[in-house]
Specification:
Blueprint: H1 2-44, H2 89-100, H3 107-114, H4 121-127, H5 137-144
């Protein structure tokens, strides 16, 4: 009787080890995907310089210096649902600040990364803001409607 119990324990332990190994492999793959996504995100968030009336050059609504601020060390992007305008803007800002404050609460970083949390009509709204209009995250929040 003892032998069957011992065999069952070993089989259960082996099964648990296989499950743990598969889970660790999945975690490593997700981390690798996150790292690849971060590389792409960081390339797109490199400083964008305004070029008045230059076709094809994206402009931003911030005063000089904001977009030149380096991203936080270890920045990999946020795991945040993009804002489409379907929830309260205050709720979106609270979610945004909660996640971003894990990396930085610097005014320029809050401004610089904000557009990555928008999608659809709200992102379109952001792209239509005038160049050199916004000088702080407080001003951006007011314009966002909170």
């Amino acid at each position: 009787m003892w032998e069957i119990s011992e065999i069952q324990k070993r089989a259960t332990t082996k099964s648990a080890n296989n499950t743990t190994t598969r889970q660790l492999e999945q975690i490593r793959e997700i981390e690798a995907q996150d790292a690849r996504s971060a590389e792409v995100t960081n390339k797109h968030l490199e400083p964008i310089h305004s070029a008045p009336n230059a076709p094809g050059i994206q402009q931003h609504p911030f005063v000089d210096g904001i977009m030149e601020t380096p991203l936080p060390k270890g920045w990999r992007g946020m795991h945040l649902d993009k804002y489409y305008g379907t929830i309260n803007p205050d709720e979106h800002l609270a979610n945004y600040l909660t996640q971003l404050n894990l990396f930085s609460n610097e005014n320029t970083i809050l401004c610089r990364i904000f557009s990555t949390s928008l999608k659809g009509s709200t992102f379109h709204w952001y792209t239509q803001l005038l160049t050199n209009l916004i000088d702080s995250f407080e001003m951006l929040k007011k314009m966002f409607g909170t």
